Amino acid sequence: MGSGASHGSSDEPKTIAVFGATGLLGGAVARALLKDPTNYRVRAITRKPNNDKARKLAEKGAVIVTANMNDMESLEKALDGAYAVFLTTHYWEERNKEKEIVRGLNAIDAAVKQNVKHIVLNGSESVRKLIGKECNNLDSKAAIEEYLKEVGVTYTIIRLPFWYENFYGIFRPHKIKHGVYAIPLPIEDAAIDMICVKDIGPCVVSILDSPKQYKNKTIGLSADRMTTVDMAHVFSKHIDKQFISPKIRTKDYEKFNFPEARDLAAMFELYQKNLAHRDIRLTKKLNPHVRTFDKWLERKLYKLEEVLAGDKDNEFEHQK
Ligand SMILES: *[C@@H]1O[C@H](CO)[C@@H](O)[C@H](O)[C@H]1NC(C)=O
Ligand SMILES: *[C@@H]1O[C@H](CO)[C@@H](O)[C@H](O)[C@H]1NC(C)=O
């Protein structure tokens, strides 16, 4: 060791404060860290300390801390003594870009105040800058990235691709007629990057394990890359139904009648134009066990069939 980044005795486990620890992404990071108690202690930050997910993390050894990202005092308390922070922010709950940015900046300020050594951020490229269209849920994350890069703390930014888990929620295959389902992603003939959220956890652990290698870097993660035709093949291989690719255009998608349509159309336009660079080789280096979509679907069969059986005539509902 011997760099300025290490402090205290190097064989003490380091405390990592994980935001969104009861969510899908923060939860994956927390669980991956909990598998390495010799090196890490997990401080799970949540607004919902009494829910089941928080309890399960506590059973596995995490310390549950309640903090409100609008309240500096609670943030500073939550980050006191932490070596590193895994930071994610949410857009969909409030659908307010400015408020999401404020929460992200608050967390960064509190981390700096508490002398945290490394911040790993779930960031994003700015869709507005790249294609000239508003994408509130990603532009907010881009603004938080920009701030983090200037603030003078060591960081690693991860940029994520489409999650396989999205097929349970708003992007679940939509029933067209009996036994026939369409993959509702507006990417026409383009291939997009994808990953299983759980596989991101070990990637973040690898980043924290090798801070020198990944300091002040921006890393695009991906485990697989597919067109909707490829996805339809994989679905048909594992589920005894017909899957098709309707090749929806972003131009049409943005006019769909649900509140996220415009933001999501812009996001998919970014993906479709290949402007979001994700690196499968680097991702496999960070986590040699990342699953391809095929491998993931093979294991998830039961749950997906349930999702498809419950299909309520193309009703969009946001993933919780
Ligand atoms: C990372 O960049 C920040 C400035 O943005 C700097 O203060 C910090 O020392 C850098 N970290 C390392 C380990 O080089
Ligand atoms: C992380 O960022 C991605 C955008 O790259 C976003 O879709 C996702 O919701 C974020 N995750 C969390 C838990 O905030």
Q: If you consult CATH, what is the topology of the largest domain?
A: Rossmann fold
Question: H/E element string?
Answer: EHEHEHEHEHHEEEEEHHEEHEHHHH
Tell how many strands the DSSP assignment holds.
13
Main CATH class of the largest domain: Alpha Beta
Order of strands across the main sheet? 3-2-1-4-5-6-11
Bound molecules: 2-acetamido-2-deoxy-beta-D-glucopyranose
Radius of gyration: 20 Å
Write out the CATH superfamily name of the largest domain: NAD(P)-binding Rossmann-like Domain
Largest sheet: 7 strands, parallel
User: Helical residue percent?
Assistant: 40-55%
Count up the helices.
13
Globular, elongated, flat, extended or rod-shaped: what is the shape? globular
Number of domains: 2
pLDDT averaged residue by residue = 92
Domain NmrA-like: 14-280
Protein name: NmrA-like family domain-containing protein 1
Pfam families: NmrA
Family: Belongs to the NmrA-type oxidoreductase family.
What is the gist of this entry?
With 320 residues, this protein is an alpha/beta fold. Helices cover 40% and strands 17% of the residues.
